[in-house]
Amino acid sequence: MARQKRADMIASTRSKLIAAGRKAFAEKGYAETAMEDLTADAELTRGALYHHFGGKKGLLEAVIAQIDEESSARLRAVVETADTPWEGFVEECVEWIKLALEPEIQRIVLLDGPAVLGDPARAASQSACLASTMHSIQVLIDQNVIKPVDAQATAYLVNGAALNASLWIASAADPHLASTQAIASFRILLSGLLR
């Protein structure tokens, strides 16, 4: 009973810190967020932040992981409602690019994340995304929908194009125009895979 109570307390503290971090990073950005912004809203101490995340950078990683998890769920829903595997593949990729229009994702994941944590292509979430893309491509090859390309190489190229499009959109003077242009070009690129 005491062990469960402690586990609940730990989960609650982590959840409060992630919520406070997400709010502060979205509103102020990583660089402008003070430690007090992260702990005061959650009514916790700096010690709790350091204990659970090792500091502000670790909290940013946890916030990005939470956003990635939510984004993945949204993308799975797109695939599940598609009429065909090809449509699901294309629309999942396009939806991923569209996420770059959301202010929270722009600031936290696409602008501050790479600036603080380094190359987003090396993030754990990108490995999972790459594996998913490679699986989708292999299914489309097996179903004779697309040309017999190397699934791994093609997954890297597709993910790289989508990631770079998202980074461009996030930093563009007119993100909506950049998104429209990127998605139109991306659809043409993907169509080259079709038999």
TrEMBL record:
Residues 34-53 bind DNA. Keywords: DNA-binding. The gene is tetC_1. Residues 11-71 form the HTH tetR-type domain. The lineage of its organism: Bacteria, Pseudomonadati, Pseudomonadota, Gammaproteobacteria, Pseudomonadales. The keyword DNA-binding applies. It comes from Pseudomonas synxantha. One of its GO terms (molecular function) is transcription cis-regulatory region binding. It comes from the Bacteria. This is TetR family transcriptional regulator.
